[in-house]
């Protein structure tokens, strides 16, 4: 099957218009402001759990005499 000349010309014209626009992103689609991927409350909870568990481990190791 062959493509009609008119359809091929339309596709080529569309491609030629688009090739000059590549790489340019409009200002409206870019993210502005402080948009964190993680909620600050969840991040704070995670830090609390990690630091708290490490402190608990250090205290437990110190009270058991070194090697647990």
UniProtKB/TrEMBL annotation:
It comes from the Eukaryota. It is found in: Endoplasmic reticulum membrane. It holds the Pfam family RAMP4. The lineage of its organism: Eukaryota, Viridiplantae, Streptophyta, Embryophyta, Tracheophyta. Its main location: endoplasmic reticulum. The chain crosses the membrane at residues 41-59. It comes from Camelina sativa (False flax). Keywords: Endoplasmic reticulum, Membrane, Transmembrane, Transmembrane helix. It is a single-pass membrane protein. Belongs to the RAMP4 family. This is Stress-associated endoplasmic reticulum protein 2-like.
